[in-house]
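Weekly structure sync, notes
Attendees: PL (lead), two postdocs, one rotation student
Agenda item 3: pending single-chain targets
PL asked that the sequence for the first pending target be pasted directly into the notes so everyone works from the same version. It is reproduced below exactly as submitted, 105 residues in total.
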Amino acid sequence: MTSRRRRCGGRARRQSLGRDETARSRVGVGRRVSAVSTQIAAPTFVANGDRDGLFPAIDSAVLANSIPRSRLAIYPDSGHGFLFQHVERFAEDVLRFLSETDTDA
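Predicted structure, written out during the meeting:
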């Protein structure tokens, strides 16, 4: 019974966090991410689906623009699980990114 309560409580918490994050993302994600993301020194691959309801694609663009040495990939006609819809393309993009950043080091 305890684990059931934890699961339900966790699920409710995740759902409310999702709504809060979506609401905040529409009201100034740039200010929130830039303080931390500009400190990321490692090459970073940012990927998202163009129909993601949890983390809108525009937020991915803002995030990628704030990280030095980042690359952005937006996958068409897909949501938060874009990598399951575009398995081959995602794998190719990641491998290309890794091979190009390996030579940059």
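Discussion points:
- The chain has one domain: 2-104.
- The longest strand covers residues 44-49.
Action: rotation student to compare against the earlier draft before next sync.
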